[in-house]
Design a protein that fits this description.
The protein is built from eleven helices and nine strands. It is of the alpha/beta class. The chain has a seven-stranded mixed sheet with strand order 3-2-1-4-5-9-8, sandwiched between helices. Strands 6-7 form a two-stranded antiparallel ribbon. Helix 7 links the parallel strand 4 and strand 5. The radius of gyration is 19 Å and the shape is globular. Bound molecules: S-adenosylmethionine (SAM). S-adenosylmethionine binds next to strand 2.
Length: 278
């Protein structure tokens, strides 16, 4: 086998040169597998998924699209496409592309995702009011990683999940309750940063202190932190509803889904039109 073919086979996402300007995907194979595992819990015809934070469309957007593309699914991608203020390389991208919605659109077209993906170019808190409560089967949160953004995003989207559905997110790479008290005291003033670098205390070398604290607080320490169970992922998850709700959804039951309507006959929000192909 040629080296390039072998590289492509080993790389879950394929060769980065296939992506617009060679921008590499920002989630790894372990996270992709975890997303698929969580999607499988709620997978069904006409299901409705949404993510906050789609970046250039070749990471979580691609994984979710490819996994639900044969289900007549609805998949909203919410992003300002202006980058997070606390991530310097996002701001470099912003200078280069202004909005990178077009880069996202070109990448989504590269894997024929445009029939499923419904972009919403707006802040997360603006998008969430467009959706009725209990209208979504699956939400993935991966926007700004500062504490107040993560907390706000989880609280905004949690009521939108159907009982037994899945809310999950990225970059919960430590357990707040398990942090060394000195590390917690030192990292707490920096939770609005994208991540925190440990200055030598026992525990993780670097971690997303804002995500870790917000997930801990909102779910009172009861969210599933998959890094504890699987190691190779930083995805967290929670399933609202009763045990019966979860069982019903997992065996294919639950409120009937519709590709045209969300709940109570209400039409899905109108997506932002796709920009012209470059
Ligand atoms: C970490 S990246 C997302 C990575 C993406 N999930 C992937 O797998 O490639 C974070 C994204 O969140 C977006 N973002 C930041 N703050 C936001 C907000 N308040 N509302 C919507 N999107 C936001 C940024 O523009 C950026 O594209």
């Amino acid at each position: 086998m040629k080296l390039s073919a072998l590289r492509k086979k080993l790389n879950f996402f394929g060769d980065s040169s296939e992506w617009k300007d060679g921008i590499t995907p920002s989630i790894g194979g372990g996270d992709a597998k975890m997303l698929i595992r969580l999607l499988n819990k709620v997978k069904r015809e006409n299901m409705a998924a949404l993510e906050v934070g789609s970046w250039v469309g070749n990471g979580s957007t691609r994984v979710i699209t490819n996994h639900i593309r044969d289900l007549h699914a609805v998949f909203y991608c919410v992003d300002t496409w202006a980058g997070s203020e606390n991530v310097p390389f996002h701001q470099e991208f912003r200078k280069r592309y202004n909005t990178f919605f077009e880069v996202f659109a070109d990448n989504v077209r590269a894997y024929n995702g445009q029939d499923i993906v419904r972009p919403l170019v707006m802040p997360s808190t603006q998008a969430c009011v467009l959706f009725p409560d209990k209208s979504l089967d699956f939400v993935f949160i991966d926007g700004n990683h500062g504490y107040s953004y993560v907390k706000q995003d989880i609280l905004a989207w949690l009521p939108k999940i159907k009982p037994g559905g899945v809310i999950c997110g990225h970059d919960c790479d430590a357990c707040y309750a398990d942090l060394d008290p000195k590390l917690r005291a030192e990292s707490d003033p920096h939770v609005e940063d994208d991540y925190y670098e440990n200055k030598g205390h026992p525990g993780p070398k670097a971690f997303h202190a804002g995500v870790v604290k917000a997930v801990h607080e909102v779910f009172d320490g009861k969210a599933t932190l998959w890094f504890k169970l699987k190691g190779s992922t930083s995805v967290w998850s929670h399933r609202p509803g009763s045990l019966m709700d979860r069982l019903r959804v997992s065996i294919g039951g639950g409120a009937p889904a519709s590709r045209e309507e969300s709940v109570g006959g209400k039409a899905w929000p109108k997506p932002t039109p796709w920009p012209a192909a470059n």
